[in-house]
Design a protein that fits this description.
The complex is a heterodimer of chains A (478) and B (99). Chain A is built from 16 helices and 15 strands. Chain A is an alpha+beta fold and 478 residues long. Chain A has three domains: 287 residues, no CATH class; 114 residues, no CATH class; 59 residues, Arc Repressor Mutant, subunit A. In chain A, the strands form three sheets. Chain A has a nine-stranded mixed sheet. A three-stranded antiparallel sheet of chain A has the order 5-4-15, with no helix packed on it. In chain A, helix 2 runs antiparallel to helix 3 and helix 14 packs antiparallel against helix 15. Chain A starts with a strand and ends with a helix. Chain B has three helices and three strands; from the N terminus they run ααβαββ. The relative contact order of chain B is 0.08. Chain B has a domain of 39 residues: Histone, subunit A. The longest helix of chain B is centred in the N-terminal third of the chain and has 18 residues. Classes of the chains: A alpha+beta (478), B alpha+beta (99). The interface between A and B is large, with 61 and 42 residues. The structure holds zinc ion (ZN). The site of zinc ion has 8 residues of chain A, from loops.
């Protein structure tokens, strides 16, 4: 029997507000434990939460960007559970009336060539819990409440994802949108973006969903991919053997590359939700919703479409350039300075992105001015440097943080386009390389490349290869 | 029908991380039943056309604070009441499983 996978994803996103969602403590990462806490986020009796306006409107922004409906009346609820990272013994979250619902994210996994809808079930706002540290070989845990009360947006999909590739593509696209909105740094290493998954398998053609397993502890996109792949195989294996799949939570073990059952004493999840009486309800006027909708930035898909129509880029290039807002912005800045979009696109998706990948850094961290690239492109066009020199020049400009023009002047990198000088060199080479000349004349035209190479070597790559080519051809055939 | 049975009290005790002995279970079951039956008087009111209220001040809505930093407590003060601590951390019995 053939099986298919059914996946739903749950993303938790820390919002990049200055202060926590219900109190004025800082959300800054990596500070001394328990130095960013107050009676509210420590859950002291009598303290009262007041909602952070910025966190609320960031949430609305995300919801609208994900094509969600905004709830008419938004309220918060208490999700009750007892755990040391939760000082109040409840988390302020949203239960039956989430901030927003019924959204959609469009995905197009590589290779499939198809655009698919992934429905977003709900986006709601809640508070993060504290952080637990488990010292090795000790029988205690340590608690840091700096993270307690940091605004957290939960984004839940319907089980519309049918493969690991689709799950990966959804996450990449979601992250891209969130970065465009500038509502979070989306840094998985810092835990600003976390992902859990629900996964089940069923025989192809079957309507009813199989028993779902909840996957946790996947700390990177790669982890999500590996965990889902592993779990798919595990579940299909069990199903084929006729064994029962148990409904449970499993943790991804990135070292052993397996998922393991998280045996919980508390079988059923029983959070005993009830309305949070310390917070008033919230209503967003339709006019305000419209205003926020209209102020949303151009999102990746729309930008890609514009790049195709306005700059004549291929769908692929447009997709790559718009996958990250800072790369898209860089590209557009460059095009303003050097209005040849296709050439700029080639260099940005090629050399620039290769540098980002090789160094595993962001555009911001690479810190290369749009004008550095466009100066180089202008120098190629006017024949001052060759394409090969340009690549080296870009690299040096990145590494030394200096302007390409200055490097060219300092290192005397100007391309030799002086025809008289090159003619003289060509004649000398033809005199010396008699065999190649004979080969060329007997029809082996690739001997020309060898002769060009000789001159390039002699000039340490500074000769203009197009001109050298032309001169040699003229000499050989004339 | 009983308003609350012992199994439910046991379950709620487990959720609350409370260990109840036999006598306590007996006592709390009785007490909770009496509290719940008193409260359940409210069920006699017809609320079919009344929208649910989540906040006591029904007319109040959209109360926000600006995203502005306020001084946090001093870490030493934060830890002052902790029965157990290590460095700047609260210390508690080991928890290994997830939530
Ligand atoms: Zn606080």
């Amino acid at each position: 029997m053939k099986y298919e996978t059914v996946i739903g994803l749950e993303v938790h996103l820390q919002l990049a507000t200055q202060t926590k969602v219900f109190c004025g403590c800082s959300t800054k990462f990596g500070q001394r434990p328990n130095s960013q806490t107050c009676p509210v986020c420590l859950g002291f009796p009598g303290s009262l939460p007041v909602l952070n306006e910025e966190a609320f409107y960031f949430s609305i922004k995300v919801a609208l960007a994900l094509n969600c409906q905004i709830q008419n009346l938004i309220k918060f609820d208490r999700k009750n559970y007892y755990y040391p990272d939760l000082p109040k013994n409840f988390q302020i979250s949203q239960y039956d009336m989430p901030l927003s619902y019924n959204g959609v994210v469009y995905i197009a996994p590589q290779g499939s060539g198809e655009r698919k809808r992934v429905r977003v079930k709900r986006v709601h706002l809640e508070e993060d819990a504290g952080k637990l540290v488990h010292p090795e070989r000790e029988n205690y845990s340590l608690v840091d409440f700096n993270r307690s009360g940091v605004p957290l947006l939960e984004i839940v999909t319907e089980p519309d994802i049918a493969s690991t590739e689709e799950a990966y593509d959804y996450l990449v696209r979601l992250k891209s949108i969130l970065k465009y909105l500038k509502v979070s740094d989306c840094d998985m290493e810092k835990g600003s973006l976390r992902c859990d998954a629900n996964i089940s398998v069923r025989p192809i053609g079957e309507e009813a969903l199989g028993t779902k397993v909840e996957l946790k502890n996947m700390n990177t996109f790669k982890g999500v991919r590996l965990a889902l792949e592993y779990e798919t195989k595990r579940q299909i294996g069990l199903a084929q053997e006729g064994e029962k799949i148990i409904q449970e939570t499993r943790l991804w073990d990135s070292e052993k590359q397996i998922t393991t059952s998280m045996r919980s004493k508390e079988e059923a999840q029983d959070y005993r939700y009830f309305p949070e009486p310390d917070l008033v309800p919230f209503v967003v006027d339709n006019a305000v919703i419209e205003k926020i909708k209209n102020s949303l930035p151009e999102l990746p898909e729309a930008k890609a479409n514009r790049f195709i129509s306005e700059f004549g880029l291929s769908e692929y290039d447009a997709g790559v350039l718009t996958s990250q807002i800072d790369i898209a912005d860089y590209f557009e800045e460059c095009v303003k300075l050097y209005p040849n979009p296709k050439t700029v696109a080639n260099w940005v998706t090629g050399d620039i992105m290769a540098q980002l990948n090789a160094r595993n850094i962001t555009m911001d961290e690479l810190d290369v001015l749009p004008s550095s690239l466009t100066e180089i492109l202008k120098m190629i066009e006017s024949g001052v440097i060759s394409g090969k020199m340009a690549k080296e020049l870009l690299l040096e400009s990145i590494e030394t943080k200096s302007r390409p023009e200055d490097i060219v002047k300092k290192k005397d990198l100007f391309q030799i386009s002086d025809t008289a000088k090159l003619e003289k060199m060509a004649k000398a080479v033809l005199k010396r390389e008699k065999k190649s000349v004979r080969d060329y004349k007997s029809g082996k035209t690739n001997a020309l490349a060898f002769l060009v190479g000789q001159i390039m070597r002699q000039t340490k790559g500074k000769a203009n290869p197009a001109i050298v080519n032309e001169i040699l051809k003229k000499e050989l055939e004339g | 029908m009983k308003i609350i049975d012992k199994a439910t009290v046991k379950h709620v005790a487990l959720l609350s991380r409370l260990i109840l002995n036999k006598d306590e279970l007996e006592l709390y079951s009785k007490q909770l039943a009496s509290i719940l039956s008193y409260i359940s008087k409210l069920n006699e009111i017809n609320t079919k056309d009344v929208p649910p209220t989540s906040h006591a001040l029904a007319t109040l809505k959209n109360v926000f604070r600006k995203d502005l930093l306020k001084p946090s407590l001093n870490t030493d003060d934060v830890l002052k009441n902790a029965p157990s601590k290590e460095g700047a951390f609260f210390k508690c019995p080991q928890v290994i499983e997830g939530k």
